[in-house]
Amino acid sequence: MAEPLLEVRDLVKHFPLPHTLLDAALRRRPETVRAVDGVSFTLGRGNTLGLVGESGCGKSTLGRCILRLYDADRGEVRFDGVDLMQVTEGELLPYRRRIQVVFQDPYASLNPRQTVAKTLLEVLDVHRIGSPRERGSRVAQLLTQVGLSPGDGHKYPGEFSGGQRQRVGIARALALEPELLIADEPLSALDVSIQAQILQLLLDLRASLGLTMIFISHDLRVVRYLSDDVAVMYLGKIVERAPTAELFARPQHPYTIALLSAVPEVGGAGREEIPIEGEPPSAVRIPRGCRFHPRCPWKTARCLQESPDLKGILPGHTVACHVAEARLAAGGSPT
Ligand SMILES: Nc1ncnc2c1ncn2[C@@H]1O[C@H](COP(=O)(O)OP(=O)(O)OP(=O)(O)O)[C@@H](O)[C@H]1O
Ligand SMILES: [Mg+2]
């Protein structure tokens, strides 16, 4: 693998729920949402990691912890060798420059009362990039780079279409020439016809700027198209990770197989299918043992008791499943 740009170790982020009357009556501490519950992975420079999993499994929270938009409870987020968790707020600015984000809904993250040029200028000002004069031409260059015209800088976010607004969101993320871009469902608020254009824009920029990317998406077809590796999250943990072609050809975790089964276009011919049943359980009451066991067709007595660790089973391929591991050890593949 390429030299790691990002190394996340045992990252945990829990959100305490408000104190309820029941908590008071039982004299217990308020319950917590275990949004990110021990996540570890590395990401090589210039690589793209696709991050998939059902709604509420912790993808955005993980992204926000890496961006230090949330302070994780514990763990390490080592970026270019420096643990960002140990960096004080005052020393974060250079890292905020090097790690940027594109959100699902750029409208929510753009100031509606400010022209787009002003928004972009502000970003350059905060980070003291170039002289004021250079900043003006950098804004024009950024708008052009994302397929808008320099004249669009005079417009307010509300005057753009959804696709154009996402282009502005991307321009803002690129203004600081980041090394790592976290794209959190950047296409899902857009019309299907526009999605392909924005996807192509991201791919072009990734190639020309050599970006390292975490691409969070529900759309397995897009993830397969643009990721070098895919990580599958379930209830706050990564349950499988593999190079993209390998993951789609030989998924090992029953949850991954279930996710792929739900999208016939990405299923391999003759591969085992698992229907995904039931609602995702709450991240407040995470089942004992393997957190997937209540929905798992393969579960054994061990799965009810013992949480499986993420283990390397094939080159570059890790999985957290007692049964998948046992099947492979027995020489069979579950798929
Ligand atoms: N600021 C917050 N305060 C309290 N709970 C939160 C907060 N942010 C997220 N959560 C909870 O943490 C869990 C993970 O949420 P998160 O937004 O990370 O999921 P996600 O995988 O990004 O989902 P989606 O695919 O719907 O975007 C959910 O149960 C969510 O309700
Ligand atoms: Mg999300």
From TrEMBL:
Coiled coil regions in record: none
Family under the similarity heading: Belongs to the ABC transporter superfamily.
Keywords linked to the UniProt accession: ATP-binding, Nucleotide-binding, Transport
A Pfam entry, by short name: oligo_HPY
PROSITE patterns in alphabetical order: ABC_TRANSPORTER_1, ABC_TRANSPORTER_2
Top-level lineage group: Bacteria
Domain ABC transporter intervals: 6-260
Species, as recorded: Candidatus Segetimicrobium genomatis
GO biological process, one term: transmembrane transport
Recorded GO MF terms: ATP binding; ATP hydrolysis activity
Gene3D superfamilies assigned: P-loop containing nucleotide triphosphate hydrolases
Protein name: ATP-binding cassette domain-containing protein
